Amino acid sequence: MRSDFDYIVVGAGSAGCVMANRLSADPSVSVLLIESGPADKSYFIRMPRGIGKLLEPGNAHVWDYQAAAREGARSEMWMKGRTLGGSSSVNGMVYMRGFPQDYDAWQAAGCEGWGWENIHRQYLALENHVLGASASRGQGGPLGVTVQPKDNELVAAILAAGEAIGSPTVEDINNLETTWKGGLGYQTRNIWQGQRCSAADVFLKPVRSRKNLHVAVESTVSSIDFDGRRVVGVNVVSKKGATRYSANKEVILCAGAIETPKLLQLSGVGDAELLQSLGIPVVHNAPGVGKNLREHCYFAMQYRVRRGSLNSAFQGAGLLRSVVQYIASKTGPMSHAAHEAGGVVKTQPDLDLPDAQIGISLHSLVGDGQRVRLEKEPGLTMGGYFLRPESQGEIRITSADYRQKPYICANYLSSEVDRDHAVSLVKWVRDCVAQAPLRPFIVDEVKPGYHYASDDDILAAFHEMGQTAYHVAGTCRMGSDDSSVVDPKCRVRGVEGLRVVDTSIMPTLVSGNTNAPMMAMAMRAAEIMTEA
To answer: The Glucose-methanol-choline oxidoreductase N-terminal domain covers which part of the protein (predicted)?
Structure first.
């Protein structure tokens, strides 16, 4: 393979696949897409519930990290995708787009061109929605979006219980009206004909035959190469050894909200004091790199149920039957997303917007923050998180060696606002479960348990049992101010020829899952680059 390219895209995840697709559409330029992990050939990637095999520490398709929930709190395992498609190849396929107000707030804060008008246009172009085109939805786009089949009486009872406390049942939980009124419904998923639709499926595979697009897998970028403040290439380590690739125009970092700030710091772009302490020459003093980490603190409330659980379908003889059904017809439990139902709700009736996302999963797990397994008895999970956390953590390297994993602190619930909404979330779920439609199903609350009764008890449970939602963002914040890491054109401040396009540039977290927003944002970033 040649050693020089016009554009080098680092990371073949949700953003990287989009950028490789859009940039290589111009046959006059050459594009190199570099992915640290292997190709996405595993059958467990295609099969939606194959995530049980993929999300294991040590699996070649994931990065695994130890993250501190808060300073002095227990650590937990964080995993991110490390294959073509990135996390879109290993995630729960929950398709949520965030609220229009999220993007409009970014624009109002100085991120010109990133308001809902521009992002919504990307969603309409992206989606091939099974419910058809509307003012909210797109149809005819490359990404298949379907809705969980309405085939479980326990889910129907939960939706009825939600209605009883003011959360209406809706056909499309991404409907624009739902983003300000709230609502629960059967889960929208990026699943089509029973198979996962990853960013690699949608954006990369259709263009792999382009002669000007080159893809390198199992190749890790160890550092970015600068000539003064100008990026001129990247240094890569693979099974073949060390290689340097030159970038004639630009390098675009799409490595994710953990690996991108790590790579910037390793390359001399970061807090000068930190870099100097590790013996790394400072290219540009950028204290914001790795700061402003935002993450949803997910809290799984679990219930023992009499019927409706799929625990037995995912283990033992039941698992065998489910796999056979899936192979034969691409249907059944193995074709489900991580949640069978969900939506956004107002945990307090006087709120202007929904403040919590609820995910309803017909299974229950036991674990210690590191590894998990299914419960033997029938269980239900009603998990959720506060949608717009204000708590901020950080990521920072601890060594100049690229092989060393960074220090990560989520700093969950350090904000009073986050704590207030965490408590009201638990109370909302308990109120829902207590409604008449669910009484024939619910036996008891297993996690956290009703002995966590007071507000202080609930917060203690969050600290003990809360965990990552795999939505880490914000660590290379976009903005118009000098302290932001990237400007509204995704260019890294203080250097030339370098952009960032991944969840690290989000100024704040979107109200929901991050996979769909990242694809839409990357589509918008590609527009901005071609407009420039």
So the answer is: 81-104, 256-270
